[in-house]
Design brief:
elongated; 17% strand; 315 residues; 8-stranded mixed β-sheet; 4-stranded parallel β-sheet; Isopropylmalate Dehydrogenase; alpha/beta; 38% helix
């Protein structure tokens, strides 16, 4: 491993998901420069390899003292986190705890996590993995979900929030922080000042009452950001901003709630996007899809999103 390498920790996530299948496929399809270190139950790893008929050499690591110089991707490098008494929630929690411990210890490390059944794992304590990792690193108020594709990315101001509560969470401070983090990311990663569009909250950016969120919050915030020299526009109606001739004008579209922007980008790019968490003290990405338990063990799942996640960190 070279001095400039940035090893990637990979939390396998939900045991009954398609992740190990697409992980095996990814290792077969691309050459990866940075060392990959899988955090997984050893028995699950071996059983899935046998069941899906993949053959890899295995390199079991001791997490207390990993010698990164001795790691290469000709084998599957892994740290064993045993699944005890079929307690999946505890298993995923211990996997993340280990990853965060190692990330704090070595600043070169990066993180990919596999899909997780949020309802079972988070149990209403966190809105999503973005907020879970934000809380565990004391950055809860400073994390942003960015669903990234080079042609167009999207980001919701609110994530897994019931629609009836969204309007309560739209604020000038929240929008400004969102735009700042996205702008910093694009400048740092691509050396560009991104063109950012913001949607409105209400249909057609209007409503049948006098003081809509557009009037009270969104319009004044966009005007403020323009004065601060951010390249922002809007608010745009969500039903037309994703028309081809409209979205091509922007690098990022920020929406007011989850499905307002995630539905359209998945329709446009399908699996060709990744989930990046901005605002953490380390790089974290994940495939932009769930565990897909119905496809577990069928060896028919598309690895594109995981391939994109690995490639994004492998530079």
């Amino acid at each position: 491993m070279s001095k400039n390498s940035k090893p990637i920790l990979v939390v396998a996530g939900d045991p009954k998901s398609i992740f190990l299948e697409i992980y095996f496929k990814s290792l077969k399809l691309i050459k990866i420069s940075n060392p990959l270190i899988l955090i997984v139950d050893e028995e699950i790893l071996i059983n899935q390899m046998k069941y899906l008929k993949y053959q890899f050499k295995l390199n079991k690591l001791k997490n207390e003292n990993i010698n990164f110089k001795m790691i290469n991707n000709r084998t599957i490098n892994y740290i064993n986190v045993p699944l005890k008494s079929k307690n999946i929630v505890n298993y995923i929690e211990r996997s993340f705890q280990l990853a965060i411990k190692l990330l704090k210890k070595d600043k070169r490390l990066q993180l990919i996590n596999g899909p997780i059944n949020k309802k079972k794992f988070l149990k209403g304590n966190y809105l999503g993995i973005t907020e879970y990792l934000g809380s565990k690193t004391n950055n809860l108020k400073n994390v942003v979900m960015l669903i990234f594709n080079k042609k167009l990315s999207v980001s919701p101001i609110t994530t897994h929030v019931p629609l009836k509560k969204v309007h309560q969470l739209i604020s000038k401070k929240r929008i400004i922080n969102h735009v700042k983090l996205i702008n910093e990311f694009y400048k740092r990663k691509f050396n560009i000042k991104p063109k950012i569009a913001l949607t409105g909250l209400n249909p057609h950016c209007e409503s049948n009452f006098n003081k809509s969120e557009e009037v009270k919050v969104i319009n004044p915030t966009i005007n403020y950001l323009k004065k601060q020299k951010y390249n922002v526009s809007g608010p745009f109606p969500a039903d037309t901003i994703f028309l081809k001739n409209n979205f091509k004008k922007f690098d990022v579209i920020i929406g007011m709630y989850h499905d307002q922007v995630l539905g359209p980008i998945k329709s446009i790019f399908e699996f060709d996007a990744i989930n990046i968490t901005l605002g953490l003290p380390f790089n974290r990405v994940s495939p932009d899809h769930g565990p897909n338990e119905k496809m577990f063990g069928k060896n028919k799942s598309n690895p594109t999103s995981l391939l994109k996640a690995i490639k994004f960190l492998d530079n």
